[in-house]
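User: Fold this; tokens only.

Assistant: Input:
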Amino acid sequence: MKNEYLLLTPGPLSTSETVREAMLKDWCTWDDDYNKEIVEVIRAKLVKLATQKDGYTSVLMQGSGTASVEATIGSAIGREGKLLVVDNGAYGARIAQIAQYLNIPCHVVSPGETSQPNLNEVETALASDPSITHVAIVHCETTTGMLNPIEQIASVANAHNKVVILDAMSSFGGIPIDIADLGIDFMISSANKCIQGVPGFGFVIAKQSELEKCQGQARSLSLDLYDQWHCMEANHGKWRFTSPTHTVRAFYQALLELEEEGGVKARHHRYQTNQTTLVAGMRSLGFEPLLNDELHSPIITSFYSPNHSDYQFKEFYTRLKAQGFVIYPGKVSNADCFRIGNIGEVYPADIERLIGAIEKAMYWKVA
């Protein structure tokens, strides 16, 4: 079955036909064919994608990506712990909100939605408050498309012996990183992002020594990161509660297709080409990106809305959807903008077709 339109969003995203076809078979959650040959293979492949160093492990968690973030925050931080969060968008703010819900003390560094974090501010906070035990940052802040300086933030945190939590929800599998080299202790992502699977579960790749410290610390039964990991370790991939089997099987297929494409470097190159093609084409039509070019990720780009009294995002969106493209509304609090994603089963030729469709959809330009 062909898609009716391309999802130019940061996930869920357009998937390949073969990924969708992988969900047409039912699986038993107790069967070795599922647990040993699919779940355990996925766990091993994820670790290899994240680092070539030893000492790391992975755990899959049912639910949205946010559920895996909450599982990590609620399990990794002890009762006496305190979290520093870098917040320059909706997803950094969501981490701080999770900490608030879980009654975890939290210091927020908030440079604004269109600015990268000030390293001196992070350094000062860590130096002046020894009660901070963990530092959390979002790699690609899809509020704007900002790519945050995780190398520098992690380096500062490591220098102060803090545990580093990286929300790589929208970047893992699409941007090359080695979490061991960066000193990342917990990295979180989701099935329906750059690996190009479908929604249903997230995953955490963690330094095993830090994950083992989570035992007994969880503030939730279903979001107990340690217990989920321990169950998978002890039972060859078995989930504690009902596994999203069809989603997991689709993800396995997506991992194979990532390898066939040439790995993360090749996918990153495709996404980068998509993004630069998009920005050049949009500028040719009179649109300007919200961020300076050097701050852009290859994942998603925010554009200022046209300064025209007849422009309405909903009408623009509807006209594009009728031509086979779905884009995203803006999420920035102090700017009228919209977003276009570059990830998923999307290629430069698709972006070129999109530019033509946008030109046709610019109804406010019609005399």
